[in-house]
Amino acid sequence: MDIAVAPPPNKRARKSQTLDQDITGIRAILSDEFDEDIALIKAHSCQLETKQQLQAVIQELSQKLPHFQHLKRVRDRSVLICPSSEIGVSQTLEQHLEQFAFSEHVLRALCHGVRVVDVPERMPRLRAQYEKTIQHWPCKFHPNHYSESLRNGTNFSAGQRIFHKRMAQLLVRLSRDVNASRPVGICVDPRQPSIVSIAGASESASPHEHCGMLLVDFVARSQEGGATKTDLPFTEDSEAEAEETTLRGIPKAYYDYLRKNDEYKDLTFGAEKSRESKEVEHVQGADNLAKFGPYLCTGYDVYLLQEPCLMCSMALVHSRAKRVFFLRNSENGALVSRFQLHSVRELNHHYEVFQFTTSEDGDLT
Ligand SMILES: [Zn+2]
Q1: 183 near 305, Cβ under 8 Å?
Q2: Measuring CA to CA, which residue among 115, 104, 41 is closest to residue 78?
Q3: What are phi and psi of 57, to 5 degrees?
Q4: pLDDT tens digits for 148-190?
Q5: Which residues have C-beta under 5 Å from ligand 1, the single-atom ion?
Q6: Model confidence over 53-66: pLDDT tens digits?
């Protein structure tokens, strides 16, 4: 009987079992403004008696009450006047309008057939939102092909999709076989594509040794920077192999593992050397990290086994990563679980975020 009441394996335990064949797709993590239903606000409207009134009413309204830039102001003969919240609690619409010195015939029109209606608070971002929104009131909409493609998954070509999924499988393998099942991250220059750097979280509990933080730092190594003190041996560039690129951002254990494995023979490794680094060699004591730090991951894709914490997510903002892909949710994750750091407008850099979907996702929803 004890066995019968044992709890089913939870999501976390099952996720850790994720193997190669389980990764089924990739979904963009868009900020809520793309996905949520658009909030409605109350607005006062009036009903025109004749269409001939329309021109004068709209002309004065747009000058004196320039609200609702995102909406069509007229539906049939109903005209939006202002958000109901603008009208004082103990005020009538007429008293409110008096302060704007409307001409007499327009004021009369505005006070005829007054109703309170629900209108969308802002412009929709995606067509699906638009179609829901116009059921309430006609609104403006500027379709954005790229945003739509992120939502419906057509932003990646079949070849790109295969590569991204392969990186996700690689994260699972490297974590299991090289990093004692702790999180791993891979940084890729998507132009070739080529693996620039790999980092695994250390045993230490310090957030400075999370794989996101280490990955950014190891990318710096490929640009002759890097601040983390580590005993980890890194891959050396052989004379013949690396003229334009460098393997110095990849710890030797990961490189050797991948090189020995026939399955990964076709992968390309190495980072383009910093163009400026050739000049810097002549400048004694130049602080490379300070000089290149803010532009470290510019144009690079980052793949992480675990959703990054707030500190790692910020490090990826500072390093200007182009896209962040991750496989598993983290309890303290800052991209979908706790926050959507990438949708904070105030940040000076925004990366795109994608999560791999697994065959487990289906039966958990
Ligand atoms: Zn972290």
Answers
A1: yes
A2: 115
A3: -65, -50
A4: 999 888 999 999 999 999 999 999 999 999 999 999 999 999 8
A5: 210, 212, 309, 312
A6: 999 999 999 999 99
d(CA 271, CA 194): 7
CB 222 within 8 A of CB 251: no
Q: Is 92 helix (H, G, I), strand (E, B) or coil?
A: coil
Give 251-291 as a DSSP string: BHHHHHHHHH-GGGTT--B-EEPPTTHHHHTTSTT--HHHH
Instruction: Say which amino acid occupies 108.
Output: R
Residue 40 β-bridge partners:
120
204, burial (CB in 10 Å: exposed 0-12, middle 13-18, buried 19+): exposed
Residue 280, pLDDT above cutoff 80 = no
How far apart CA 153 and CA 308 sit, in angstroms, is 23
Q: How far is the CA of 226 from the centre of ligand 1 (A)?
A: 17
Q: How far is the CA of 332 from the centre of ligand 1 (A)?
A: 9
CB atoms within 10 A of CB 298: 12
